[in-house]
Amino acid sequence: MTDRNAYMTNELQAIFDQTVNFVAKEVVPNGDAWEEAGFVPREVLTQMGSLGMLSLRIPEEFGGLGLGMLASAVFSEALGSSTYGGFDVTVLVHTDMAGPHLVNSGSKEQLEHWLPGVLAGETILSIGVTEPDAGSDVAGIRSSAVKDGDGWRINGTKTFITNAVYGDMTIIAARTDTENKYGISMFLVPSGTEGFSVAKKLDKHGWRSSDTAELVLDDVWVPDSQLLGTPHRGFYETMRNFQNERMVIVGMGVGAAQQAIDLTLAYTQERSAFGATLFDLGAIRQRMAMNQARIDAVRASMYHAAWMGDNGQDNVKAMSGVKAFGCEVINQVMYDCVQFHGGMGYMTESAVDRMSRDARILPIGGGATEVMLEEVAKRSYQS
Ligand SMILES: Cc1cc2nc3c(=O)[nH]c(=O)nc-3n(C[C@H](O)[C@H](O)[C@H](O)COP(=O)(O)OP(=O)(O)OC[C@H]3O[C@@H](n4cnc5c(N)ncnc54)[C@H](O)[C@@H]3O)c2cc1C
After folding, report:
1. What's the 135 CA to ligand 1 centre distance in angstroms?
2. Are residues 19 and 147 in the same domain?
3. What CATH number does the domain containing 208 carry?
4. How far, CA to CA in Å, does 183 sit from each of 106, 153, 258, 375, 376?
5. How far apart are CA 100 and CA 74, in angstroms?
6. In sequence order, what E strands does 202-289 have?
7. CA-CA distance, 212 to 200, in Å (whole number)?
8. 78 burial class (0-12, 13-18, 19+ CB within 10 angstroms)?
9. Is the pLDDT of residue 22 over 80?
10. Does 171 share its domain with 292?
């Protein structure tokens, strides 16, 4: 055990250190160029693959480390130290938001076929659930797949799909049972499949080095071997993976907020004002102290919810609460960090400007705060 927190082991600490070091060496010097380009170059992802950084959640029998949610908590927090949320989410969608659908629902043949490329960073994954008319209400999706010979024919539109402009395979949710609102199935749809196209590369407020696609599925046919999991059970299988997705969104935000706090402490201790430094002003030092305490609280509850998941406990209430509370706290911290940088905090050359824009999506994506609070409330009735 290390002194970082009660759940850390030497192995988890090593993952944290390796990731922080990689980010400092390979991401920070290049992040601005990737923000400008609107995507993370493939070589970076294959480099991470060759270092084993994409393998944490892949079962050992398929060449991974077979680790659990705590490893993803550590990995996401360490990625967050990059200060480039667009880079962080590019990696985390692949490893922790799309990847778990394949790992948890894939057949042995599917895993043997796809995981080598996933591990190597050569097959970059995306997850296509959201549609123009259905986001929070997943059961409202309209994309449909109907049985056609020894495969399925898929039609529909997806939007806001991370990694789908430059990625290699999207896991698509489509309605397969018209009689049942929850009758959804998941399909593996590689880029280049006939009828499957990027309608638009979307422009965004933040996460600018991450690519985001609007996708069209126009009479796309896939063989039965590309149906993922049990037919019509995709809604439930998808929901199962959402705790991990919620957690890494918080994790990357905690890592970023800690960086923002550290940058703001350094800035306010250097900047002269009123005969001393900004940090000598009680209003600033106390608010930054409270921000540190709040981020420490979010971090601790995130690791605890991860530990619950790894120990077979139902962590939906805990993780939903962490997602709701944590993402709001992260945004409040970012607000203060911009505020205490003064005018410089509003300049695009400041890391806190970018981090505050990147943080804004955290309470919306992967389960909006209000949706998370409903999950907590539903589980709060006393019997
Ligand atoms: C940059 C980015 C990347 C994304 N990446 C992906 C991806 O890779 N794959 C994917 O499938 N999706 C992705 N999404 C979609 C994302 O998960 C959705 O935007 C999110 O789930 C909210 O859905 P919506 O945008 O349709 O908002 P809506 O569902 O229309 O909700 C709008 C707002 O209404 C409020 N609200 C919603 N439901 C409730 C409720 N029950 N009670 C009270 N208030 C409520 C919330 O404040 C919410 O923000 C991404 C989105 C963005 C912006």
Report:
1. 5
2. no
3. 2.40.110.10
4. 18, 16, 42, 21, 25
5. 17
6. 212-223, 227-228, 272-273, 276-277
7. 9
8. buried
9. yes
10. no
The verdict on 137 and 172 lying in the same domain is yes
For residue 316, give the nearest of 76, 308, 68 by alpha carbon. Answer: 308
How many domains is the chain built from? 3
Whether pLDDT at 4 is above 70? no
- Residue among 133, 160, 215 whose CB has most ligand 1 atoms within 8 A, to mutate: 160
Q: What is the DSSP letter of 213?
A: E
Look at residues 94, 124, 154 and tell me which one is the last residue of a structural domain: 124
Count of CB atoms situated within 10 Å of the CB of 16: 21
Pairing of strands 125-128, 169-175: parallel
Asked whether the predicted pLDDT for residue 115 surpasses 80, the reply is yes
| CA dist., res. 125 & res. 32, Å (int) | 24
Instruction: Report the share of the chain in percent with pLDDT over 70.
Output: 99
- Enumerate residues 6+ apart whose C-beta is below 8 A from 75: 15, 16, 19, 53, 56, 92, 95, 96, 248, 251
Both 331 and 318 in one domain: the answer is yes
Q: Max Cα separation, the chain?
A: 79
Q: Predicted confidence band at 1 (pLDDT cuts at 50, 70, 90)?
A: very low
Q: What pLDDT digit, counting tens, does each position of 261-300 carry?
A: 999 999 999 999 999 999 999 999 999 999 999 999 999 9
Residue 1 lies in a domain: no
The catalytic position among 131, 237, 245, 375 is: 245
Same domain, 120 and 134: no
Active site residue 36: no
Return the structure tokens found at 214: 């609007």
pTM of the model as a whole: 0.97
Is the sign of the CA dihedral 130, 234, 368, 99 positive or negative?
negative
| pLDDT tens digit sequence for 332-365 | 999 999 999 999 999 999 999 999 999 999 999 9
The answer to whether residues 256 and 362 belong to one domain is: yes
Task: State which residues form the domain around 221.
Answer: 126-231
Residue among 88, 320, 327, 364 whose CB has most ligand 1 atoms within 8 A, to mutate: 364
